[in-house]
């Protein structure tokens, strides 16, 4: 049987704690390549680098892994890993383990999810894994979930345009109230800009904001997490608003 | 009647030709603010800037417009325009006119569309307009379409989670074979990396690729454009793969 090729990536960067946990979580499941941004690339959305050349550096993390750092986005990493770095095309892409949730409207800003999306665009089954806390680095349960889901995806496959977006609360396994299939929620951030003046008397702005919870349905990502459940959302990228097609066709579209 | 507030933005940057055409296209329809990236931000996906402060500079384009340049992404521009720059929240966001199509899988990489998406996230009706050519700057028909659709959206409104993604071929009005409501296609790029060696003997990579046309259905974005039609796709950001929810629930999800 041919060895499974596993690509591990993230958006927090190749030196982040989460990618080391993820690399260890999939140990023994196949040939593992780690290719990730050399620096943190959060909130980059589904960016790719077209105006600058990409460079790849070898990275050895002490007591950790050997991998490749790329001066690009998570999506760049998946492209260049599959086409230039790995000996064969990956059989699965796993992205994470992100510190902080990737749920609701935030899914579209997420570098973690965009790496998995890039895998899906290349028809490679892909999983994004996030720990829903910035401050409680309780990775052990998320590691176990990640490993199990890699095995499940290798067993079942995924629809060719679909990835799994997995969010794990920062809890111990025995505190978990369930592992549930969810829908992407609609919660948004209430944003503000913090306006400041620099030492040279010029204005600058920091984006800040807090999440508003708009969802109440049980089967929605953020709601599941709030209940100490693991949330697994199948995600696809046909953005067509099918429900509105017909009404839009009735408009006077001709100028 | 209160004046309509119109936000004009783009991803090619505030000095690009397309945004000047778009600004002129909506002349007289309301109070127009132009807020756009100070430099080109193509293929940035739905990125936002959280690790760096944003700065805003006043820009006056000779014979053109007065506007604001932002050292951020198109999504940043919409956020900061609505929250810090404009006197009132915009009634409509118009993004473009992009040089190059934003169709099929490319929609998820598109800065032009991400600006409109940011408007939608703020519940502001939004339109992304692209001219489907890099080399034929035939803006006059695209301008007419943009102005007409701004009027139509102001008249009808849009569903609160939906934007219009408009792609106009580089043709004269009399060559147009129709203005059609379409679905997002599935065409992908066949990518390659061009590997080179710099003068210091280090390797670097350029991303290159050509679009493969996978779609044949008449009602798909790229197919409409190839037929010299204007393509209007309603886009929304609930990425849940509803068709796969049930099957996924039958998996053994518990490790």
How would you describe what is shown here?
Two copies of one chain form a homodimer. The first copy, chain A, has 255 residues and is of the alpha/beta class. Helix content of chain A is 25%, strand content 29%. Chain A has six helices and eleven strands. Chain A has helices at residues 17-25, 74-85, 111-121, 139-156, 221-226, 242-249; strands at 5-9, 31-37, 56-60, 66-70, 92-99, 126-131, 162-168, 179-181, 188-197, 203-212, 230-236. In chain A, strand 6, helix 4 (139-156) and strand 7 (162-168) form a beta-alpha-beta unit.
* Number of DSSP E strands of chain A: 11
Q: Which consecutive residue ranges of chain A, at least 5 long each, have pLDDT under 50?
A: none
Coarse structural class of chain A: alpha/beta
Shape of chain A: globular
Radius of gyration of chain A: 19 Å
Helix amount of chain A, in percent? 25-40%
Q: Tell me the name of the CATH class of chain A.
A: Alpha Beta
Oligomer: homodimer
For the largest interface in this structure, which chains are involved and how many residues does each contribute?
A: A-B, 81 and 81 residues
Spatial strand arrangement across the major sheet of chain A: 3-4-2-1-5-6-7-11-8
CATH superfamily of chain A: Survival protein SurE-like phosphatase/nucleotidase
Give the DSSP E fraction of chain A (strand runs of 2 or more residues). 25-35%
Let me know the average pLDDT of chain A.
94
What is the succession of H and E elements of chain A? EHEEEHEHEHEEEEHEH
Q: How does CATH name the architecture of chain A?
A: 3-Layer(aba) Sandwich
Gap between N and C termini of chain A: 61 Å
């Amino acid at each position: 049987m041919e060895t499974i090729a596993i690509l591990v990536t993230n958006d927090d960067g190749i030196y982040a704690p989460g990618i080391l946990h993820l690399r260890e979580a999939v140990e023994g499941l196949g040939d593992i390549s780690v290719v990730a941004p050399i620096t943190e690339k959060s909130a980059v959305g589904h960016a790719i680098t077209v105006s600058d050349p990409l460079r790849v550096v070898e990275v050895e993390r002490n007591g950790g892994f050997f991998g490749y750092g790329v001066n690009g986005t998570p999506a760049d990493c998946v492209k260049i890993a599959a086409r230039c770095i790995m000996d064969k095309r990956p059989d699965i892409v796993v992205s994470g383990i992100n510190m902080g949730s990737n749920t609701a409207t935030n899914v579209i800003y997420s570098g973690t999810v965009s790496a998995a999306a890039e895998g899906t665009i290349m028809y490679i089954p892909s999983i994004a894994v996030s720990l829903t806390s910035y401050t409680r680095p309780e990775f052990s349960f998320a590691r176990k979930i990640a490993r199990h889901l890699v095995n499940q995806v290798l067993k079942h496959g995924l629809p060719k345009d679909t990835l799994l977006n997995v969010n794990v609360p920062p809890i111990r396994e025995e505190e978990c109230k369930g592992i549930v299939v969810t829908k992407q929620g609609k919660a948004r951030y209430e944003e503000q800009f913090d306006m400041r003046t620099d030492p040279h008397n010029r204005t600058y702005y920091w984006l800040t904001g807090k999440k508003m919870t708009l969802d109440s349905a049980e089967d929605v990502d953020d709601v599941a997490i709030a209940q100490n459940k693991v949330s697994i959302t199948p995600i696809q990228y046909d953005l067509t608003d099918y429900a509105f097609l017909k009404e839009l066709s009735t408009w006077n579209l001709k100028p």
